[in-house]
Hints:
The structure holds two protein chains of two kinds. Chain A is mainly α. Chain A has one domain. Chain A has 17 helices and no strands. The longest helix of chain A is centred in the first third of the chain and has 34 residues. Chain B has two domains: about 90 residues, no CATH class; about 130 residues, CATH 2.40.50. Chain B is built from five helices and six strands. Chain B has a five-stranded mixed β-barrel. At the A-B interface, helix 2, helix 3, helix 4, helix 11 and helix 12 of A face helix 1, helix 2, helix 3 and helix 4 of B.
Amino acid sequence: MSEQVKQRYRPGSLEILAVLLVVVVVAQRWILSAFSNPALQTASTIFVSIVVQALPFLVLGVLLSGAISAFVPTSFWQRALPKNRALAVPVAGAAGFVLPGCECASVPVASSLMSRGVAPAAALAFLLSSPAINPIVLVSTFVAFPGVPMMAVGRLLASFVTAVLMGWLWLRFGKSNWLKVGPREHLMGSSKWHTFRLTAAHDFLHAGGFLVIGGLTAAALNVAIPSDWLQAVADRPVLAILFLALLAVALSICSEADAFVAASLTQFSLTARLAFLVVGPMVDIKLISLQTGFFGRRFAWRFAPATFVVAVLVSVIVGWALLT
Amino acid sequence: MGVVDMRRDVQAIILVLIGGAILRISLTDVYLNYVKQGMQPYLIASGCILVLLGVLALIDIFRKHAKSEDEHGHHGPRSAWLLLLPVFAIFLIAPPALGAYSAQRNSTNGTQPSTTAPPLPAGDPVPVLVSSFVTRAVWDDGLTLVDRNVEMTGFVTPDPAGGWWLTRLAISCCAADAIVSKIKTLGTSDLPANTWVTVVGHWVPGGGTKSESAVPLVDITSLTEVAQPKNPYE
């Protein structure tokens, strides 16, 4: 590589980084005055706080995915999960209950599960269930709705059913060429520790960029949606459910916190708020962005809308049965 | 291979930068503008892990050069460039805690409590959270506030109808889920938005009850301008 450089100079990424840093430092005064606008300032606070809140969970997720790639032999998964794929889906979905993870952590973990030979349908059921039904999320839901214990029960039930249904749908209709499971040979290091390190760093850089896109979008929407619209929408039952489901997609709040936000949306029916809680950890802008990065656009464009529809339908049924 | 494909050395530098940015806000109180206090150990740990991953990757590169090994073009994900945005935001802009702009945009005030609030502790004036004052006034008809002098700290949000609200935001996870609590102040002159004040006053009826949009009233007897508290959220 160094000989090539001697032959013909081409600016590389290091030079671009250096130039970028110099430009930003020189233009600092101009950037700061642009950000004294209160709307931009609020959006930048929300952007930074979403990224800062999600980062520790993302780091945890990439450490887990690195550990799965480096230390857990492929044979373990063949023994741990039932041979029958249709049966493996609910087992993997239930495993989400044991492994607490934020949605940002579950994407790299599901991706490394697939590259270790776990059936995609089972890995997807795990991807959807682990951020939605882990103990931390259920306890926070229970705390946020003190008068309505059925909210936490409904959330557990609706999220688990949605995850399993999506796994089975993938089994029946999914095509493997929609799914991009990156070959990871180049992440094989000289030792297990080295592999672990390479995988974790690679997954973090990959997912981090998509987390940033999600954070930017959520911050922009947070500042752009006038809150007075909410009351008008809340008075129409069907519209209210759809609206809260879409709001969950737009706001991209982490699953540990969304119960408190749902609790504050008191104008809306309990069923609409259940839909908000079921959709949020499974489909949101930050997640769609992460899934696009890990599994490819062909996958994300099909999987996210399908999950949205299934999650809303299941929430309506569970809400009708438990919360009215 | 385009110039935007990231070389290993640049990947390592970005890991160090983002880890450094997280450490910079979590080793001081700045992180409290964005997330809850309980996040601090996790932020410090993840900042250290990222810096470590970056430094180890840099060491890899130097070793390889020393052994003049042929390095194949392992180019990293393009999306990683975006990680520079939070780095720049933290080091250059350092966004402040949410304030009057968010409070003005939000028409709901506080949250409906599940139980009746207990009587206020002894004290004259007795320190009360802005959010607690709002729930006591709005959802308990002000019963626990009658004839009590209260002391509260919050910031100024101008009321478009004139005067200002004593305001405080509460976050349950990060600033994206902030919930506003505001109280209309009586007996005060106008102050600039986002001024932090500690006030002593008492509740007066008339702000409306049993509604998410009711804004209770407080008659202010003394007011001191203060610095923003260490934790700007309640």
